[in-house]
Amino acid sequence: MVRHSKNANGSPAVDSASKAIIEQLQEDGRRPYGAIGKAVGLSEAAVRQRVQKLLDQGVMQVVAVTDPLTVGFLRQAMVGVIVDGDAEEVADTLAELKEVEYVVVTAGSFDLLVEIVCEDDEHLLEMIGKRIRSLPGVRSTESFVYLKLRKQTYAWGTR
What we know:
The chain is an alpha+beta fold. It has helices at residues 16-27, 33-40, 44-56, 87-95, 121-132, and strands at residues 75-83, 100-105, 112-118, 138-145. 20% of the residues are buried.
């Protein structure tokens, strides 16, 4: 059985073998467990068990990442949100919106950073003006519209 202890913030602690597996999957999420096992020095069964444990604990997800422009979404934006009251409550509400890809509670000029993906400018206007700004607790927003994506990577967090 794979055992992962908790780290100081209560999240599952991930050992070096599991980090190596994650790195293999970050390079190619479809890489066979046998090939991963050879690369990290574990059996195929051990890799399968560790991957399942990492998925079950919410440490990682294995997903297909797309460029939104190639699948019909013409507008992306990061929205800085200033909140009156409980920022985490507003973050939870925003996280439920299907257009929202990313929500972070921050310390700084904004209480929250929210990444949204929209079909077009009209959809973006609706999201910001009618869906985000109208939420209870949202005092103000500032939008940063993406003009061109230069780098997007998910190979962080294990090195």
